[in-house]
Amino acid sequence: MANLASRRIPVNDDYQTCERTYAELRVYGNELDPKIITEILGVTPSSIQKKGEKRTNSFGRTVVFKTGGWFLSSEGRVQSKDVRRHLDWLLEQLVPVKDQLSNIQETSGITMNVYCIWWSTGDGGPTLWPEQMRSLADLNLECAFDISFYGDEEIRETDK
Questions:
Q1: Across 121-159, where does the E strand assignment appear?
Q2: In 3D, which of 78, 81, 63, 154 has the Cα closest to residue 118?
Q3: pLDDT per residue over 77-124, tens digit each?
Q4: What is the 3-class SS of the chain, one letter each residue?
Q5: Between 6 and 46, where is the model more confident?
């Protein structure tokens, strides 16, 4: 194990500059059948979408999915404002199925990544440690962040 004393930003479940965060594996494919991904990985997804399926979003707008999707999310499963805890949970699910994940990645027309949401309340953003970066690299997964900034008034409005 690496010398954690050299780390500048310790893990903090009450990360002061974060309102909410989660990490999600996203698998997409034009011909993707979510049931097959579940069978190959042996992991139950958080959600799926089928190509051509219609859903009404939170704005009341009906969306027709143009591609199939399979998603595994830490949202609601990890109670922390530190994205490292969310990534660790996700990686715990994926490392044991590394070979199966690799086989899916080699399938023509399939794309995947780890997508992290970070709602910021001020200065400072998410931190990754080498352990998360190494595991993501070993799984051949890119990691994207969607970062939104909220002021005090906006946060208070959402708490009502």
A1: 143-149
A2: 81
A3: 999 999 999 999 999 999 999 999 999 999 999 999 999 999 998 888
A4: CCCHHHCCCCCCCCCCCEEEEEEEEEEEECCCCHHHHHHHHCCCCCEEECCCCEEECCCCCEEECCCEEEEEECCCCCCCCCHHHHHHHHHHHHHHHHHHHHHHHCCCCEEEEEEEEEEECCCCCCCCCHHHHHHHHHCCCCEEEEEEECCHHHHHHHHC
A5: 46
